[in-house]
Amino acid sequence: MDRKRFCQLAGSAVLLTAATSLFPHKKILKYAYCKPVKSSDFKFSYEKYRLNLQHTWTTSGSSSDFRDIVIVKIEKDGVTGIGEAAPSKRYNETADSVLSFIKKSESLISQSDLWQFHELNENLNKISDGEYAAKTALDTAILDWVTKKLNIPLYKYFGLDKNKTPITSFSIGIDKPDIVRQKVKEAADYPLLKIKVGYPEDKEMIDAVRSVTNKTIRVDANEGWKIKEEAVEKINWLASQGVEFVEQPMPANMLEEMKWVKKRVKIPLIADENVKTARDIPSLVGAYDGINIKLMKCGGIQEALRMIALARSLNLKIMVGCMIESSLAITAMAHLTPLVDYADLDGNLLISNDPFKSGVKVEKGKLILPDEAGLGVK
Fold first, then answer.
1. pTM for the complete prediction?
2. What does the alpha-carbon distance between residue 248 and residue 237 come to, in Å, rounded to a whole number?
3. What are the pLDDT digits (tens) for 104-157?
4. What residues does 171 pair with on adjacent strands?
């Protein structure tokens, strides 16, 4: 049997076993990688899963007791890569729209070489605009598969130091003062808190927090303030209450007003709804001091890395955040945290039925990355 013929047939387990008697072991490994071979054991599955919240989750824009996510599994060559989509109504995405996009992508993925994940990601983006949560699930599952095949953790694949992860904040949703105080007490193990504001009773919300803790707090207005003078007044008052920074004070379509606000406040401003992908970042210079990157907004790990690099080049601070997600998606983003300034990766800590019991851990707020191959989530 010549080398060309062997490469054509190497995908067959029977022929590969028989070939051990024809070729030295080292040559078999060399020949097996000389040409991508499509596997006959490819499996692709996806299912909806409902995450139940420990407390009703309320922001200036919505309130809910559960969130629906979609779990994706890509199995090939005996290795399974997993990913998660946690869609947001803010971006006109639902679990059903995620399922629809994933179904459209099945043929492309089944016919692609997963090792060529850059090109595969580009082709997924061509299927349709938007549906970033679905694209995140697929991108994550593919990179989980690749790094499992290489038998290394994802962070190590990107050359990152797992000891340089930041402290994550723990989020407190909008609620009545007595419930807010209860939530803050329940978060005793977390040294950083992120408080949701953006409604008329903002002062009562912060007063309730400050009545039970002097911890450093961050604030997220979720586009809640519609008048620029109000935003300036509230941000400067928050600065007097020991707030580290304010996230998305005004609606995303009020970028010029944000430039006016930025010149008149005393603490940093972080863009959230104003930034989805890398293409949004340049326009934020002069309006914000940093950006909040979320996998579900940007479309996956590959795009998040592009955003980090671009933001750094523009001297913007980098925060990574999340939706209400399971440990799967939280862990995926956590692998990139050695590259960032701030982390708000607590979506899995807010739910009562996380389907995954492994992955990133949190010890006194510190993100502890897993050492297992891939994402390290089972």
1. 0.87
2. 16
3. 999 999 999 999 999 999 999 999 999 999 999 999 999 999 999 999 999 999
4. 194
Phi, psi at 38, each rounded to 5°:
-70, 130
Please state the length of the chain.
378
Distance (Å) of CA 174 to CA 32, 62, 197:
57, 10, 7
Smallest CA-to-CA distance from 200 within 227, 180, 170 is with 227
Residues 31 and 49 sit within 8 Å (Cβ to Cβ)? no
- Give the contacts of 224 (CB within 8 A, at least 6 positions apart): 60, 61, 197, 198, 199, 249
Q: How does strand 317-320 pair with strand 290-293?
A: parallel
Pairing of strands 317-320, 342-343: parallel
**pLDDT per residue over 158-182, tens digit each?**
999 999 999 999 999 999 999 999 9
All structural domains of the chain, each given as residue ranges with its CATH number in brackets, are: 3-32 (no CATH), 43-151 (3.30.390.10), 156-368 (3.20.20.120)
- DSSP three-state, residue 318: strand
Tell me how far apart the alpha carbons of residues 162 and 153 are, in angstroms, rounded to a whole number: 10
Q: How many CB atoms lie within 10 A of CB 96?
A: 12
CA atoms of 275 and 255, how far apart (whole Å): 11
Phi (first) and psi of residue 286, to 5 degrees: 95, -15
Tell me if 76 sits within 8 A of 50, measured CB to CB: no
Tens-place pLDDT, residues 297-336? 999 999 999 999 999 999 999 999 999 999 999 999 999 9
**Token code pair at residue 183:** 């939530």
Name 49's bridge partners.
69
Burial profile 44-83: b = 16 or more Cβ within 10 angstroms, e = fewer: bebeeeebebeeebebbeeeeeebbbbbbbbbbeebbbbb
Do residues 36 and 11 lie in contact, with contact meaning Cβ atoms separated by under 8 Å?
Answer: no
**What three-state secondary structure class fits 341?**
coil
Beta bridge partners of 343: 168, 320
The DSSP bridge pattern shows strands 170-172 and 192-196 to be parallel
SS3 192: strand
Backbone angles phi and psi of 214, in degrees to 5: -110, 15
